[in-house]
Task: structure prediction
Amino acid sequence: MSRKTFQRLALDERRQSLMEATLTCVARHGLDGTTVRRITEEAGVTPGLVRHYFGSKEELIKNAYAYLIGQLTARASESADTGEDGPPAAQQLRQFLLGNLTSPNLSEDKVSLWATFIGQIRHDPFFAEIHREGYREFLEFLERLVEGVLIDHGLPHRGPQCRRHAIAINGLIDGLWMEGSLNSGLYNRAILPDLAIEATERLLGLPTGALGTAGPAPHAPAPQLQEENAPCAMPE
Amino acid sequence: MSRKTFQRLALDERRQSLMEATLTCVARHGLDGTTVRRITEEAGVTPGLVRHYFGSKEELIKNAYAYLIGQLTARASESADTGEDGPPAAQQLRQFLLGNLTSPNLSEDKVSLWATFIGQIRHDPFFAEIHREGYREFLEFLERLVEGVLIDHGLPHRGPQCRRHAIAINGLIDGLWMEGSLNSGLYNRAILPDLAIEATERLLGLPTGALGTAGPAPHAPAPQLQEENAPCAMPE
DNA sequence: CCATAAATTATTCGTGCGTATAACAGTAAG
DNA sequence: CTTACTGTTATACGCACGAATAATTTATGG
Result:
């Protein structure tokens, strides 16, 4: 009987690989079905490595959650690129909405992971802190976009008003993202981007079409009603 | 050493007691921290009863989830009483929004439970079905309220339009409910009812105040900013 | 008041878990 | 080529879990 051959990976690579395997397991089997043995099998290593790199299973899971939230918020923010001379605020906001309500962020895996961890907030302050930070970042980013759009349209844009708008739009995005990702089959999820854009226009008191209601993007064909981007594990 | 004395309970009482103990455990310790021993200790009985009444732990948890969703949707619908000669549609919609964004539905325990079970939808069709049914009921109820309000204001109220509005408002409610219940501390959750009412007015194109923006209810004093309805287990 | 059935407890069993430890192997420096 | 280091594997331990079974108590009906 020979010993398993193995590769030595750089510290960060191995850690990342284990965290991603953890997320895959949680998405696939839930937190209760996520065992050290399964995680390490998914990552192609042996259980001992969890202790070596993270000290305990619990610590690994916490790190994996922080890793996930980092991905989600980063991707959401990047979808609307706010450079020095970037696109006008309206288009940034539009892209932000689109980025949150289309693949890959609109995914059953992601919402499943997200919900599972939300359920932990109550019992562990660490999860609460990570969530809180991610939410704050999301909200402040959205608030800035809203302010820009209001200014461009000559609408009142005092701080508290922008914040209220951001809270409402954020709620709208969250709710649509969840139900859309879960895809109960009560409506075609492809209608969500347009629906959110139109709703945001009304919430902000913008004229219809101010955010470019028609179609998914300036260029790119209208999406056929794809079922689910099926074999999408938990990529980078 | 004497044997524990016990009470014989009616079938439904015992089942309900076990389901409530299960929800308490899941809210407090998460699904992974919910064991048969803990559940039955919470209910004041011995582990054998789970097998006796539900066959297995898994079956008990599924029943508890269905029980929870039944409570949530029932309470949400009842908050806006739609009787034969009930209040006008606007006030019903207003009460519906209030009912979802104030205690007891706005609760960290409830959202924690809800999220935990959402995380199971992906791996078990039973959970998916329960969720789907609850969501459908919620959405259709909301759609009817929206239609009533639009009619009263002489606005267009074709079916597809009502549905789109209902989807958006439902998303708004869900999102605000979640973040409000989690109470990240980024804003006072007491602003949510007003915020939601104002946002709904804008979404539907109603004149400001059409849903009675000011104050929480026709009669009843404005709520002081209570922190959390603290020792609130998981009552009926 | 007794007999019968059902509800509940007490105890046991096997399994899979997280973790700890020791042996091994890939890597890099001298 | 050798040596030291550490990433990695292999194995074992103790414990808590879900489930099953047997024993006992409560309630019910004649």
Remarks:
- Residues 3-4, 6-9, 11, 14, 45-49, 52-53 of chain A lie near DNA strand D (CB under 10 Å from a C1').
